[in-house]
Amino acid sequence: MELNIIWFILIAVLLTGYAILDGFDLGVGFVSFFAKSDTDKRILLNSIAPVWDGNEVWLLTGGGALFAAFPEVYASVFSGFYTALILVLALLIFRATAIEFRSKVESPKWRSIFDNLFSLSSTIAALLFPVALGNVAYGVMLEGNKEITNSFLSLLNPYSLIVGLTGLSLIILHGFNYALYRTEGELYKLLNGKYNLFYYIYLVLFLILNIVTLFTQKHLLKNYNDYPVFYLLPIINLIFILLMMKYHKSGLNFRAFMMSAVSILLNMITFAIGMFPNFVNSLINPEYNLNIYNSASSQKTLGIMLIIALIGMPLVIAYTTVIYRVFRGKTKLDEHSY
Known about the structure:
This protein is mostly helical and 338 residues long. It has 12 helices and 2 strands. The protein has helices spanning 3-31, 38-48, 52-69, 71-80, 82-101, 108-138, 158-182, 185-216, 222-226, 232-249, 253-275, 299-326; strands spanning 278-280, 290-291.
């Protein structure tokens, strides 16, 4: 397999890992809107406390891999989406600050400020990430000199907003599944009562997005038309979404959580197949698209990076596995909790 293709797949793996892992703690940020007491908010916060910063490493690694393997894509996207990316960075900083600072002062007002900051920054970030993917899929004003000339408001086009709302609803549902897996008692009952609404919102938006994509985004269907078996992916995804509700009703919250993780995985695979071999689609001229060939580093660079990745990624996966195994089960508060 060509190194260019391998690195397209590896970057997709890193971004998918981020979507699954940081997705649920962004979702927990939204879920915490419903927590009524300080204890409930602390339980939700501490359910992600051991892992949230490690989850964000997947985003940093994905960005670093993109910079090294496909520098032209990195330069075009990060300059063209500069305002949006600065906003996302600010939201992630606010979120980290809220997590670390909320319990530093024994004041209800102080804690309320940081609780709201945590929930708002998590929710807006969870919306902006899929909106960005929606724009990459829909296409941007990418010129022949590889510069993107979109304004910030033009990024909020109808198709990208549908992608954004669908992604946000899935992240929220993923957060609910994780929170239900990690909580018990009255908080569990409270969150369980809110679950169905967000499940059906995601189900409806998922169906709408796939129908809209099928009839309006023809440029994303080339690989599907060449290999019709790929059209089964949304159907398989729908099966896992229905299984999610089945497991939820049976009280098998970890299995429901795994189903939302699989749904994220299948959505990302569907997206990657639609984009391949492109990273960014140009609305001006398809010849200006940035793909795995016209934006890649040298073969020597890609080869050296692959060796590093083959050494580093198993270590990251092993570390992540150990951390999640150690901190599995219901969340308990102690004197060291946030």
